[in-house]
Fold this protein.
Amino acid sequence: MLSIALPGVANGTFNVVAVTGEPLPGGGGTWVNPIGPGINAQGQVVIDNLGSHVVVDSGGSPAVLVGSIDNGPYALDDSGGLLVGVNGRRGGPASIAYQANGAGGLTTILPSISAVTSLGEDILAPRLDSMIAADSGRFAVLADIDAAGGSEKAIVIGTPAGTFDVLARPGPAPGGGTFSSFLTAGDINRADGALFTAGVDLPGQGVVNSVFVKHGGAALAPLFRVGDPTPDGGGTITGLGGGQINDAGDILVSATVDEGFGPTTGLFRTDTTAQSWFNVMEYGQPSPNGNGVIDRPYEWTLGDTGDVAFLGGIIRPDGGGLEMMVWDEGTESLTSLTPAGELSPDGASHFSDTPIRSPFGSQPTLNAHGQLAFVADLVDAQDPNNEFDALFFYDPDTGIREIVRRGEEIGGRVNLGIAYDPFDGLNHAERLTDSINEAGQVAFYYSVMREDGGSDAAAAVWSPWTPGDYNASGQVEQGDLDLVLQNWGRDTVANGIPTGWTNDLPDGLIDQSELDGVLLNWGGTASPDFSGASNVPEPGALVWSGLLLGLIRRPRYRVG
């Protein structure tokens, strides 16, 4: 599993990308209320600026302003394409629009009427609070379609090209019975997979909730339904909640199971073929740190590694609370990241009695490497009345790190509280707007103090690496220079070099860009030494070598 940060190294770098009242990058107005940031694999950030959506590079390049009506769901894919749901409360029915790679404006791809499905039927109205997205603008939405007997609700898969396919609709259901109800569009992944729960009318049984799954090009098929035995044979499924499917095809479902001792609520995960059934957690099982028993899960998320993160209710002798939990597929063990009363990573604070105050606004987000971002409350060890929120980063290989806490400075201004929001209010397009990307960058928003005593909203991106620190030692020094010279000209992907190499350059090659990253951020105690490398590039390629004395006196990466 990828590690891009080690315990004890420098606490990463911040780049402030938006502050209320400051000009938008590239002109065109000012930031009004920048909230709900999400970040894609390229480090591009999407921000809700009071109903308009702005895409800006985390390095500060000019933004692309995209106007929309009201505040609907939105998502930024890894190619820079922006998917926006336009909430029609201010001017008519809802619609869905897309902007490709920051070029031009929004193009409506699903208008409120006359969007023709592959079956030749018109889509009458998409339900935006049920919109989910995968990548390259692909989305699923619960919508009304124009059927022969009148409109009916169906799950529709759409693309920026304007093609729409009906995934499920009232009528015969795979495995028997007929579809009778769809509450949401469920979830989709980047591999043409889908998962949803629906009511199925079975002869002699009535309407029974069932989970259906589609893997890649395979046909839609039932996974399990209420009344079925659990795949491990230890009980019976008595109720089904929401579910997720990751890009590998693994599935996470909230379910109620009766194992002979009464119904138990928990999270259950299966692999792609549903041959392996993992019990992530169940109501009543002991908390990992022994401070009570787990009540029920609140918000949860499934990573592409198969790891699961969730907010777990804790029933303690002194009252209930919430704690952040992680289930690591590699060890198949449950860990509490925020055990009440235990020391936080800084050693001078401890997690409060209720580390997660609310399941809302603190939802965990996982990236493709099992790394996690979340907010929790801390208490000063010397002053129990001093309680404050903090943003955290967790890596399964290196543990938990504190990113920033209320009262600390970000970009030269004191933050008054971390308003971490991995998803915009109605946004169900979480796969594209996760607030942590594959490189471990975390996008978040917070409040900053004004000179008049008031506060403004701001958005920033935290990166767990120091630019040029390719060996993750916490300092840019000779070891990083040696790595660059020894691997000069190699392709990071083709040669299996860790993904961390591409943090500073998107082209994937170890070349002048990496060399610049080392020399511009040099922090070693001696001048760079080029003599010991086994594969020193041609002298003409080392265009910076004549400027070394000047470069090593320059300040390192500027915060803000």
About this structure: The CA atoms of residues 54 and 428 lie 18 Å apart.
